[in-house]
Amino acid sequence: MENLMTYLRLALIFSACLVYGDTLDKTKLNVVFITLDDLSYESLGVNGCKVPEISPHMDRIAKSGMRFEGFHVQASNCIPSRALMMTGLYQQHNKIFSLGKAGAGNQVIRNTIPTAFRDAGYHTGIMGKNSHHNPFDPYTGFDMEYEGYGSTKYPDKVYEKTKAAIANSAKLKQPLFFNLNIYDPHVGWYGWSRISGTHKETENHPSRIFTPDEIPYPSWFPPLAENAKTGRTKRGTKDIHLMEEVTAYYNTVKRADDSIGQMLRAFDEAGITDKTVFVLISDHGAELPGGKTTLYNEGTHSPLFVSWPGVTKAGSIHDSEVIGSIDLLPTFYDMLNLPIPAELDGRSFLPMILGQQIPSWRPFVYIQQNDRNKARAIQTKDGFLYIINAWHDGETKFGSVSTGTLSWSLFKAAQQSPENDPLATAWINKLEFRTPHELYDIKNDPSCFKNLVNDPAYKDKLSEIRKTMIQEASISGDDIALAALRNPESAEARTETVKAIDASKASRMSDPNYARRAHYDPLDGKLVLDNTLFEGESGIWNSSAPGLSLSKTGGSKELGPGAIKFSGQEGQSLRFETKQSFDATTFKSIEFAFTLTPPQAPKAKKAKGKKNTKDKLAARNERRKQNPMPQGSVSIEYHDGTQWHSFTKGNLNKFLNEQKLQFPAPNAGFSKATKFAISIKSSNSGILYLDGMRLAADVNWESISAPARQVLKAGESLDLITDLSDYSEVELSYNFISDKSASQLLLESYKDGKWQVINNHDYRDVLQADKKYAAFAKISSSETPVLKLRLRNSASSPVRINALSVQKRPSF
Ligand SMILES: [Ca+2]
Questions:
Q1: Range of the domain at 502
Q2: How far is the CA of 212 from the centre of ligand 1 (A)?
Q3: Calculated CA dihedral for residues 298, 304, 258, 128, nearest 10 degrees
Q4: Where residue 213 sits, what CATH number does that domain have?
């Protein structure tokens, strides 16, 4: 407690020291928050990468501001890492344990990076990886999604959409907060297929294509005998060199940099680069063995660049402290000069950005892995990494996307061959099974080759680090990890932790008040019955059909998550059917959205010369035989309580790739007990991948009478409704005329004896309808049996409210 008081006192002194002219509330600079996906720290030029011209644009951001050398993300796979950074909360508080969103239940976390900027009057936009980035449903904070998943693998699109975001913020007269989530260098590597290895791309080339001789061997790979560096991908037909795979990764880093270049071009052309703060990070390390999904240094060490015109000194480096991704949100609040919400686990490092020291700064970063291979780690300021592998039992093998790489299979082959390399063997054994705990001297061994946990010379250091780790787990409420942290060498203690982590997620999922259930999506207003991402078991679908590998552990290891396997049995049907029936009488329509993809089926290409055509066709047919695309039909259906009806059916080819299929209710309406299903029939063998399933309904709103046109003077409020029960959600839509910013018009509810600003209201149609605002208020009637709402003008000038309408939607 004394430490905390010291920290608070110092925090006060430091905030008093700030030059307030520099904070964003005064200067209204734009902010671009860039995340790279699976980018290794060591693949940037500014970080010492020797690949020529690998990252000029990312380097430009780094060199124009401050680089933080001691930055770590606090989870090593996509969604948990992004959830931590977006919420400033550890996993026990944000509840995002894995790629599946189910464990997060129905919670809405109010304070996130975009809500901080929206509260400060910014226009908040996002491009790319939105569903991965912000797993909360309904999510809050973004006014506008500029483009969805995958779009940021196209630099031209990044340019076009950045321009649109800049134009919109100008039109709205609001500074811009633009969250650009670059999908590269996540797999989908340029010129590379996991299945067949190197191949020629026909489009979307990086601005420079590297050859393996230009590429460095990853520093965290142990040396491997030269003759062990070639082998075949899973279904490859010829030997491929390990460095071809690494080259494909680097070519994709280059394309990520091209995208960032296009974003910068849009700012340069608008002449506002010097009025914009750029913050850049990666969500974790590269998807290669020893990187992503591990808590080794490569897994969590990330670049962090902050380029803040007029504040950060060009080319400055901060390397004295370690900083975690939970510290980003509090820092953004501080940069905006907004109070930092008390519940956040992270702390603001704004003084460091201003070139100051924070004497009481936490000398470590605590890292969590609650997904498949449950573990905890800590990186310390004095350069040590300590990992506790709760999952280690000597038998369980490490399960990760990186085990599907060519590199992994080459190390595995080296391990099994008689002339193997002892270093490579030890390394792959360690990766595959781990040990109960590991200690590394990161300053001298950043590749984590030498485990010092049993070295007597580090006994005192180890005990000091362990004490810190247990303390952080206790203080932050990470109780589920404590057994293994206190006693890592005990198999029982490790099992206790694994079980506690699983039980924590399971108890939330089975709690009817918490479990994921239908909810209204603030972006499109639809009632979402399910929004499944790789998680057939935890969604609403009955996924017991044979061949389905959407298992709760994230899919079959052989085929990967979301795989559907057809055996070739005559007329085999795989059926996703909702487990429960819905009272769908209020549904106006139902929408099925999903993505169905074959496993990178080779496209038929026009042969240039006649000479090779025959060979090419033969090779293609060979590949197709190895990876056949199932032929068959799809039917999308509903059950009216008596029998199944088909909305549509047709050839399977018609339903490939991204689908958004909307069907109106039948003339007599849906029944009180409606089920929905997708059925896929095929009589040949093959594999398909299903992802991004969303089932959503349009529901009728019921109108409630509302007062006519009102002018609200400064400070005045308008009472809207009282004594309304049995609602789940109320929508207010209105437009208004005011000299001042609309953000001063507050929607409040009366609760616990006082007026409170409603947490999760959202604006939509801001840009499309030009100042038409719709505010959603979702308040459960059990919480507040008497609803009182008001609109309050807290601006200093009158606001005229037009076309006020108030509607309610049924509880669900
Ligand atoms: Ca990622």
A1: 384-510
A2: 24
A3: 90
A4: 3.40.720.10
